[in-house]
Amino acid sequence: MPQLSPVGQAVVNDAVERLGFTPDAVTHVLMALGQGGGTHAQFDLVELGGKGQWSTGGKTMIGDILNTGLHARVAALCADLSSAMAHAQVFLPPESQQDLPEPETPRMDQFQPQPPTSSIDRDAIFDSLEKLGVLRDRGVLTDAEFDQKRADLLARL
């Protein structure tokens, strides 16, 4: 697995501070972008809305389709990391990685929802709650599915 260069670590730290994701999530996306040549990524992290993908040109999909605030944050994260990869060496060259220990793989239970960073995120959560209610009323979601998703969204407030 590629190792981050000092520049790559700085890129991760900047994204963590600006977008509110954990360092593990940002690093996971950066690695996925590395595998996709910097132009596309596939990921599967609860913190990023579950399974998702991103490609240049603005195409972003996340499993948590009703969470528009998270969708925007994931899109911004991927675009920023892709741009950084195009302008700087974010990974160490393979020959300098031989003696580095393999990092511990993060567990899914380590990720906690991050609080919204603005009123826009709060508005997106309330919009998502309304959409969930409509889906439940139409029979698309069961009461249990609705209750689980509602609890997830309310935990973000």
Automatic annotation (TrEMBL):
Annotated SHOCT domain residues: 127-154
Cross-referenced Pfam families: SHOCT
Superkingdom of origin: Bacteria
Region of interest (Disordered), residue spans: 93-120
The protein, known as: Putative oligomerization/nucleic acid binding protein
